[in-house]
Amino acid sequence: MYLISLGAGILAGLLYGLINVRSPAPPAIALIGLLGMLVGEQIVPVAKRLIDGAPVTAGWFASECKPKITGVAARTPEPGAEDGSRQG
Question: How confident is the model over 4-27, as a mean pLDDT?
Fold first, then answer.
Protein backbone atom coordinates (compact mmCIF):
# COMPACT_ATOMS: atom_id res chain seq x y z
CA MET A 1 0.00 0.00 0.00
CA TYR A 2 2.80 2.41 0.90
CA LEU A 3 4.65 1.73 -2.34
CA ILE A 4 1.46 2.23 -4.36
CA SER A 5 0.85 5.53 -2.57
CA LEU A 6 4.45 6.62 -3.14
CA GLY A 7 4.20 5.62 -6.79
CA ALA A 8 0.98 7.59 -7.24
CA GLY A 9 2.63 10.62 -5.64
CA ILE A 10 5.67 10.32 -7.89
CA LEU A 11 3.42 9.98 -10.92
CA ALA A 12 1.52 13.13 -9.93
CA GLY A 13 4.83 14.94 -9.38
CA LEU A 14 6.05 13.87 -12.82
CA LEU A 15 2.82 15.11 -14.36
CA TYR A 16 3.20 18.47 -12.59
CA GLY A 17 6.80 18.66 -13.85
CA LEU A 18 5.83 17.84 -17.42
CA ILE A 19 3.17 20.53 -17.58
CA ASN A 20 5.45 22.93 -15.67
CA VAL A 21 3.20 23.74 -12.70
CA ARG A 22 3.97 23.80 -9.01
CA SER A 23 2.33 21.59 -6.42
CA PRO A 24 -1.03 23.09 -5.36
CA ALA A 25 0.03 23.36 -1.72
CA PRO A 26 3.26 23.36 0.27
CA PRO A 27 3.91 19.85 1.64
CA ALA A 28 3.26 20.72 5.31
CA ILE A 29 -0.06 22.38 4.49
CA ALA A 30 -1.06 19.46 2.26
CA LEU A 31 -0.29 16.95 5.03
CA ILE A 32 -2.30 18.93 7.57
CA GLY A 33 -5.19 18.96 5.08
CA LEU A 34 -4.94 15.19 4.66
CA LEU A 35 -4.96 14.73 8.43
CA GLY A 36 -8.07 16.91 8.61
CA MET A 37 -9.75 14.74 5.99
CA LEU A 38 -8.95 11.55 7.93
CA VAL A 39 -10.21 13.00 11.19
CA GLY A 40 -13.29 14.47 9.49
CA GLU A 41 -14.22 11.08 8.05
CA GLN A 42 -14.46 9.72 11.58
CA ILE A 43 -17.04 12.30 12.63
CA VAL A 44 -19.70 10.33 10.73
CA PRO A 45 -19.34 7.01 12.63
CA VAL A 46 -19.11 8.89 15.94
CA ALA A 47 -22.26 10.89 15.11
CA LYS A 48 -24.12 7.73 14.02
CA ARG A 49 -23.17 6.03 17.26
CA LEU A 50 -24.34 9.00 19.32
CA ILE A 51 -27.63 9.19 17.37
CA ASP A 52 -28.19 5.46 18.03
CA GLY A 53 -27.72 6.17 21.74
CA ALA A 54 -24.60 4.02 22.03
CA PRO A 55 -21.68 5.31 24.09
CA VAL A 56 -18.50 6.53 22.41
CA THR A 57 -15.87 4.93 24.61
CA ALA A 58 -12.10 5.16 24.33
CA GLY A 59 -12.02 1.43 23.52
CA TRP A 60 -14.54 1.78 20.71
CA PHE A 61 -12.70 4.80 19.30
CA ALA A 62 -9.36 2.97 19.49
CA SER A 63 -10.72 -0.06 17.64
CA GLU A 64 -12.96 1.66 15.09
CA CYS A 65 -11.59 5.15 14.37
CA LYS A 66 -7.92 5.21 15.31
CA PRO A 67 -6.86 2.55 12.75
CA LYS A 68 -8.55 4.52 9.97
CA ILE A 69 -6.77 7.72 11.00
CA THR A 70 -3.32 6.24 11.64
CA GLY A 71 -3.33 3.38 9.15
CA VAL A 72 -2.20 1.02 11.91
CA ALA A 73 -4.47 -1.95 12.56
CA ALA A 74 -5.98 -2.25 16.01
CA ARG A 75 -4.40 -4.87 18.22
CA THR A 76 -6.49 -7.95 18.85
CA PRO A 77 -6.35 -9.52 22.30
CA GLU A 78 -4.38 -12.72 22.57
CA PRO A 79 -6.42 -15.90 23.09
CA GLY A 80 -7.01 -16.51 26.77
CA ALA A 81 -6.12 -12.94 27.77
CA GLU A 82 -8.48 -11.28 30.19
CA ASP A 83 -10.08 -8.29 28.47
CA GLY A 84 -12.69 -7.46 31.07
CA SER A 85 -15.57 -7.83 28.60
CA ARG A 86 -16.75 -11.25 29.81
CA GLN A 87 -19.36 -11.56 32.48
CA GLY A 88 -19.31 -14.16 35.17
Answer: 83
